[in-house]
Write a structure and sequence with these properties.
The protein is built from six helices and seven strands. It is α/β, with parallel strands linked by helices and 202 residues long. Strands 4-6-5-7 form a four-stranded mixed beta sheet, with helices on one face. Strands 1-2-3 form a three-stranded parallel beta sheet, sandwiched between helices.
Length: 202
């Protein structure tokens, strides 16, 4: 599941270093890269892109994903709506990926879904926190409704607590997806070519 908000006003926190046109271009490039990487990843049966934006839904369809119009505002509400579609289609696991991950690739995604191969019986939650260990840059949940999604604020801790409360096995992963593009400092790290090594710390 790839949730994408409205393009207008996207990446406003980068406004100090990028103008509106540059932020729009960056958002579209990140969206294209994320959708394409997910579609190309072995082991993913379907990629759902949920967004209120017509242009993004057109892009998703062109790249081989399933576009869904988001009718309720809010990131978590969009993910819950997409999760409902995934459950109706028979999904036994759900991976949520935001689009602001500059190092997204099929290999990086496969490293997350590989946690499904070694899981014991029972629910599983795998988290890739951001580099500050506060936000959630990727969330794998099996079955998809084992926990409620808690994006926003200190979501990494919230998702970990939800996993413990549900009695799920919790796996915390490092790797290239810990770097996201949210602030000017993040953009500077990307421009400098800083990359994190893939490490499973769970």
């Amino acid at each position: 599941i790839i949730p994408i908000g409205a393009l207008e006003g996207a990446k406003s926190r980068l406004g100090a270093v990028l103008d509106a046109e540059e932020r729009l271009d960056l958002t579209l490039r990140l969206a294209r890269r994320t959708i394409a990487a997910a579609v190309a990843t072995a082991g993913i049966a379907e990629v759902i892109v949920i967004t209120p934006d017509d242009a993004v839904r057109t892009l998703a369809a062109e790249l081989g994903a399933r576009p869904i119009r988001q009718r309720d505002s809010g990131l978590n509400r969009g993910i819950v709506a997409a999760r409902g579609e995934a459950l109706a289609a028979g999904a036994d696991a759900m991976l949520v990926l935001p689009i602001d991950l500059p190092d997204i690739s099929p290999a990086a995604i496969e490293a997350i879904i590989a946690t499904l191969d070694a899981r014991p019986a029972g629910p599983l939650v795998a988290i890739v926190p951001d580099r500050h260990e506060r936000g959630t840059n990727a969330l794998l949940v099996a079955p998809p409704d084992a926990i409620e999604v808690c994006f926003g604020g200190d979501s990494a801790a919230a998702h970990a607590e939800a996993a413990r409360a549900a009695g799920a096995r919790l796996v915390v992963l490092g790797g290239p997806l810990t770097l996201d593009l949210d602030t000017p400092d993040d953009l500077l790290l990307v421009e400098q070519g800083l990359r994190t090594e893939a490490v499973d710390v769970g």
